[in-house]
Each structure stands twice: as structure tokens, then as C-alpha cells.
Design a protein that fits this description.
23-stranded antiparallel β-sheet; 4% helix; 56% strand; globular; signal
């Protein structure tokens, strides 16, 4: 994801330097957030690549970065063959690397700030027989301490890929991923918290006594300087998740001009997201309790497509089917009583059993069917036209499995109900013309639709994440989000210079928004149809190579996104018409310089991000910031049995900028004013590493 940061119009943010904290990562492409962007890995749909994903998993947990083959990104309207129900604009297709033909492997190790250690090992079998059977297996382990407060972030992952070539340019491959995450999360903050208490606010862990006293209204860190001191008084917040992902990929050449590609896949996730609640006392009398969301994802599906070349046409059509069972439960567990003078450190990763309350529970079952057909026509050399469309049918049924009324404030959650998203004709048109020697023109037009999202009660802009009464009231008015996306661009490519400029426009309809109030542990969320959104933007990029080994890149991006309607809530109308869309900056500037001399290379990159509206009425905003990174590496070549032995050194946030980023994707913005949905970006950190093949 960090590699995409240098692309104009892309904004990647993380509260840790490595991007492994999925609860503190944000990705935008041309104003589209990561829950509106399609992701796939070797043709396997990854769903919404967000924290608390309900229909997939974050890309960082799907594949070790060392096993990345390549990525393809569509910044405009996505692609009709992308297996995703949330594409409103943009798509990222990730491909894993293939096993090597010769026996060998890769070793890599990194260490640095905050006791960070990263280790990776991969073994390639090489060709095992005349048929060319080959595989690799890899293991990655990442350990680091939080850069503020106490706690660790642990992440381990294993990948396996097997490739079996078949005669006539065909093959069958198997990809397997196991990911195990156990992380302390950084505390979410408000603008007020940062202004009054600074950037170093963190959870109380491991000091249980201070958290115990804070739940009783006794504050020791100045929390009472804020208007909501208990929201700065958490003992801990953690995430544990274990994912199993597998896909069997068939690539068969049936005839000289006919190819068949299919993927059969399955995915299972079990997770615990825990945070301490100073508002809810334990059943045993302790003044605080542990709130644990324990979701479970069980999904399987297949994609199948045919490609036929006839004359100057390439015709491509296919189908995607998926069944996804998402179990979303939240429980309350006892914290221990604390006697006078006693010292305890309850383990936030303890095995959760015997809850004193099931706060709420919903089980979702979703069936998705998507079909598409497209044709790419090349009437003359260097000119192509593309036309196609997809049809999407996604039906979700939800049942209530638990409701603790003192917590939820309602006598029934949305249950025994369902909604269907149906788009019979979602067209996509594009064209590309390489004229003269170095010039290229292109355009892209598409209509997209997003299926209704799912989550736990009051945790996102989902029409299901509300009370039964609220669901019944909104059922007749809620509609799927749709967008028309238009883009046009020009590229100039030469040995010494690359230049590009593109303009785009997006018209959203039925934009869903989650308006939040209340505490972080029990946010009171109202899901509203915000109406239309109009987005206009332009990107320009310039790469210069004035000297051998020197490359200088500059880009500037401007985005103007506004709401088309005012918002009415509880008979009160709020002036949001013409206000800027939350979270995405109007202006970004990027600059990168890289110099290579013999076996050494150096790079420095800088990013300017302008201020971003925080509230829907734009009365609060997040400040602008600069972020600068530096890197150097040296390739020693072959030493003994090691090949491409490379040492690297990196400094992230070189200037020590302090900046704020959003958490979550749907449930973090207030209608006006402030809310606790911000995290602080990582400070300056240093890392050194070595990598070698054998």
C-alpha cells in the first residue's frame, strides 16, 4: 500500500510506520475510501479492506509483502470483472509471485525503533519433475512495541503457493494464507483531547489501578480538563484475529484463441476486538468491564471467465458467486475487583469465557451473484475501445441473536429482515490512443453500485446496524449507493521525461453516512441517506531523469467534493449543501527523488496534505501536514552462497511531523463539532534491514 502512495491522487495514512495496524490505516483513491475500492488477490475477492471487515480481510493479512508479484490499480471507475460488491471507484488487483524454477529461497530481517523486529524466510522447491511442478512456502513474523503507551503489536503469517503447469500454456495453482494478529491498539482521540492533553495520550495499560480509579471519577492524567474525561480513560484496547484463506486457480488454454480462468476460494476468520468500558460496571461490582466484539466470517465462492480473441476483438465474460455468513456478536466480561494496595494487570488477550451479558448479536447471510461481459476492439494499431457491463445481485438477510436493552437502548435490533441490491446494467466504456511516438490519450466512463454494508450494531453506515424501529422507518427510503465516474487524461513518455495529467468527475447518488454521538464504547449512530455528492478533480505528474541514475518526481492533486443536499435529522435541518466531503483533502503535493550510483541507491519523498473537513457541516477540520521519508540501500551482490545481499536503512517521518488521521471508514464523523475517531500518525522512526537470496 505504501508503494501506491506515490501515485497522484492516492492518499495512504497509517498510525504505525509499518502499516500493520489495520485499525489505524486509511487509503483513498480520488476521494474514494478503502471501503469503496475493490481489492482482489490472484482473483480472490478480499471484500472491504477495512478494520472489522465483514466480507473479507485486509490486504496486509492476505499476503506477505515479500511475496508480492505485482499490483494493478484502476484509479477511475474500477473494472467490470472485479469480484467486489463495494466498488464505487477504483480497484486494486494484487498478484502473488510465482515459485522459482530453481531450488533456493529468501531471507530477510529488519530491526529498528520501538524494539521492532521483522523476520521473513521463504523456501522455493524449484521444478520437482519434468512436468514443472513447483512451490514455495514462507513464514513472516513481525514484533514491535507501541510508539506511545505500553503494549505490543504481534503479527505472524505463512504463505504457500503451488503451481502445476499443464501442456498447451495452461496451469493450475494453489494459494494459501494463514495470518495471526495480536495487537494493542492506539487510543482514539478527539480534537479537544489533542489540543488540551497533547499527542501522547494513551491507554492506562498496564496500570489497572489508574483505570479502576478513573472509572470511579478519580483522574490522574488531567483527563478532567476535557469535556468528556471518561473517553480518555481506557485500560486497554486490543485486536486478535486469525484468518485462513485459500484459492485454487485454473488457467486453461482451450484453443488458440480461447482461454478459461476460474478460481474456487474459501475464507474463515475468527476475531476478538476488545476495549475497556469505564461506563459499564462489571457484574461482580468492579467499576469497569471489558467489551469484546467477537465476529466470525465464513465465506466461499468461485469466479469463472472465458476470453475469446476473434479478429480485432477480445471478448471477455464471466460470473462470480459468493456465500458469506457473518456472525457479529458483542459481549461484556467481568474485570477483577481491586482491594486497597493490591496490584493487578488483567490480560487484555485472555481467553474470553462466561460473559455476564450478551450486549447484542446479529447474524448476516449474504448471497452475491455478478455477471459481466466486455469487448476490447483494436481497429488500428495503437488504438483501442472498450465497452462492457456487469449485473450485480446481492441479497442479505439478518437475524437478531441477542439484545441487552440497558446497553443498546432499544427493545429490538434489526432482525428477521433483508435487503437486496440489484443493478441489472452497470456499463463501462473506455478508450486508449497512443499517437505519434510518445503521446497517449485515454478516457473512462462507468456506473457502479455498492451493496449495503454490514457491521455490528451502531458501528458503521449500515442500514442493518440500527434498531428494528429505525430499520422499519428507513426501509422505504434507503437505496444502494451508486456513482457515475468520468475521467480523461493525457500521458507523455520519453527517456528523460514522463508527464501526465488527468481530470475526473464523479456523481454519487444515495450516499450513506453514519452520524455519531455518545461514547467510543457505545456510539449512538444514525444512518442517513445523504443524497448526492459531486466530485471534480485533477492530477498532474512530472518525472525528470536529467542524469544517469537520478529520477525526480513531482505531482499535484486537487479534489473538490461537495454534498448536494442539506441533512435533516429529528426535524432539524443542517446546512450541508455545498459543504466539502469529510476526510479527503482538497490538495496534495508529492515529491520524490531517487539516485542510484553503482550498487548504492538513495531516495527521499515528501507529501503535503491540506486540511480535511472533519464534520459534515465543516465546522471542524483536521490540520494540514508535511510528511518526509528517507531511505538508502546497498547491494553487495553475491557473497558466498548468498545472492543479491542488500542492506537498507530507512527513516520514516524524517522531520518529526505531528499529524492526525481518521480511524474506521463509516462511523467516525460527527454532524458538527468533535468526536473520538482520530489517531495520531507515527513519529520519526529508524529501521535497518538485510535481505538475501540463496
Amino acid at each position: 500500500m505504501k508503494a501506491l502512495q506515490n501515485v497522484p491522487g492516492v492518499l495512504f495514512q497509517s498510525d504505525d510506520a509499518q502499516g500493520v495496524d489495520t485499525g489505524g490505516v486509511k487509503l483513498y483513491i480520488h476521494g474514494f475510501s478503502q471501503n469503496q475500492i475493490g481489492f482482489s488477490l490472484d482473483g480472490i475477492p478480499l471484500g472491504e479492506s477495512v478494520y472489522r471487515n465483514y466480507n473479507g480481510l485486509n490486504a496486509v493479512a492476505a499476503l506477505s509483502s515479500e511475496n508480492l508479484g505485482h499490483m494493478e490499480m484502476s484509479q477511475g471507475a474500477g473494472a467490470v470483472d472485479m469480484p467486489s460488491t463495494n466498488v464505487l471507484g477504483g480497484a486494486i488487483m494484487i498478484s502473488s509471485s510465482d515459485p522459482k524454477d530453481k531450488f533456493g529461497g529468501t531471507l530477510a530481517a529488519t530491526g529498528g525503533s520501538n524494539a521492532t523486529t521483522h523476520a521473513f524466510i521463504r523456501i522455493d522447491s524449484g521444478k520437482l519433475n519434468p512436468a514443472g511442478t513447483k512451490f514455495y512456502v514462507s513464514y513472516m513474523r513481525n514484533d514491535t512495541k507501541l510508539w506511545k503507551g505500553y503494549g505490543t503489536q504481534f503479527f505472524q503469517q505463512a504463505n504457500l503457493k503451488l503451481v502445476q503447469p499443464i501442456h498447451n500454456e495452461s496451469s493450475v495453482s494453489l494459494l494459501f494464507d494463514w495470518a495471526d494478529v495480536q495487537q494493542f491498539n492506539y487510543q482514539s482521540e478527539t480534537l479537544e483531547t489533542v489540543q488540551k492533553l497533547g499527542y501522547g495520550v494513551s491507554n492506562y495499560y498496564p496500570n489497572y489501578r489508574l483505570a479502576y480509579e478513573a472509572a470511579q471519577g478519580i483522574y490522574s492524567h488531567g483527563e478532567d480538563k476535557t469535556s468528556d474525561p471518561k473517553d480518555v480513560s481506557y485500560y486497554a484496547g486490543t485486536t486478535t484475529s486469525r484468518d485462513l484463506l485459500g484459492g485454487l486457480n485454473f488457467h486453461l488454454k482451450l484453443a488458440d484463441r480461447l482461454r478459461w480462468d476460474s478460481v474456487v476460494y474459501g475464507h474463515n476468520q475468527k476475531a476478538d476486538t476488545q476495549w475497556s468500558d469505564p461506563w459499564m460496571a462489571s457484574a461482580n461490582g468492579a467499576p469497569l468491564s471489558e467489551i469484546v466484539k467477537q465476529p466470525d466470517i465464513q465465506r466461499f465462492g468461485l469466479t469463472s471467465s472465458m476470453t475469446y480473441d476473434i479478429g480485432k476483438h477480445e471478448i471477455h465474460g464471466g460470473i462470480w458467486y459468493e456465500n458469506n455468513k457473518y456472525i457479529s456478536n458483542m459481549f461484556a466480561y467481568n474485570d477483577p475487583l481491586l482491594a486497597e494496595g493490591q496490584t493487578l494487570t488483567p490480560n487484555p488477550f485472555r481467553k474470553w469465557s462466561d460473559p455476564f451479558a450478551k450486549l447484542w448479536g446479529q447474524t448476516y447471510n449474504t448471497n452475491t451473484m455478478q455477471t459481466y461481459i466486455e469487448d476490447t476492439w483494436r481497429p488500428v494499431q495503437n488504438f483501442s475501445l472498450h465497452a462492457g457491463f456487469k449485473s450485480m445481485l446481492s441479497t442479505t438477510h439478518v437475524g437478531q441473536t441477542g439484545n441487552y436493552e440497558p446497553y443498546t437502548g432499544t427493545n429490538a435490533l434489526a432482525g428477521g429482515v433483508g435487503l437486496t441490491t440489484f443493478g441489472a446494467f452497470l456499463p463501462h466504456f473506455s478508450g486508449d490512443w497512443h499517437f505519434l511516438t510518445h503521446h497517449e490519450l485515454y478516457f473512462d466512463i462507468a456506473k457502479n453500485m455498492r451493496a449495503y454494508p454490514q457491521s455490528g450494531y451502531h458501528l458503521s453506515a449500515s442500514p442493518f446496524a440500527v434498531s428494528q424501529e429505525a430499520f422499519d422507518l428507513s426501509r422505504s427510503s434507503v437505496k444502494p449507493e451508486t456513482s457515475w465516474a468520468y475521467s480523461v487524461g493525457y500521458r507523455f513518455t520519453q527517456r528523460r521525461i514522463d508527464f501526465s495529467v488527468s481530470a475526473y468527475r464523479v456523481n454519487f447518488s444515495n450516499r450513506l453516512g453514519a452520524l455519531v454521538q455518545g461514547s467510543q464504547t457505545n456510539p449512538q449512530t444514525t444512518v442517513l441517506n445523504l443524497g448526492g455528492v459531486t466530485m471534480n478533480g485533477v492530477d498532474a505528474g512530472l518525472t525528470l531523469r536529467p542524469l544517469r541514475g537520478l529520477s525526480i518526481f513531482n505531482s499535484i492533486s486537487y479534489n473538490h467534493s461537495t454534498y448536494d443536499n442539506n441533512i435533516t435529522q429529528q426535524d432539524t435541518t443542517y446546512a450541508t449543501k455545498g459543504k466539502h466531503v469529510v476526510n479527503y483533502p482538497d490538495l496534495m503535493y508529492k515529491a520524490t527523488a531517487e539516485y542510484t550510483y553503482k550498487k548504492a541507491s538513495f531516495n527521499i519523498d515528501a507529501l503535503y496534505t491540506s486540511s480535511r473537513p472533519f464534520s459534515y457541516t465543516n465546522d471542524t477540520s483536521l490540520p494540514s501536514y508535511w510528511l518526509v521519508n528517507f531511505g538508502a540501500r546497498y547491494n553487495f551482490g553475491r557473497i558466498g552462497r548468498l545472492e543479491n545481499l542488500t542492506a537498507s536503512f530507512n527513516v520514516t517521518n524524517l522531520t518529526g511531523s505531528r499529524y492526525l488521521i481518521m480511524t474506521g471508514d463509516d462511523g467516525g464523523n460527527p454532524l458538527s463539532g468533535d468526536y473520538q475517531s482520530l489517531v495520531v500518525g507515527a513519529p520519526r522512526q529508524f529501521f535497518g534491514g538485510v535481505k538475501a537470496d540463496f
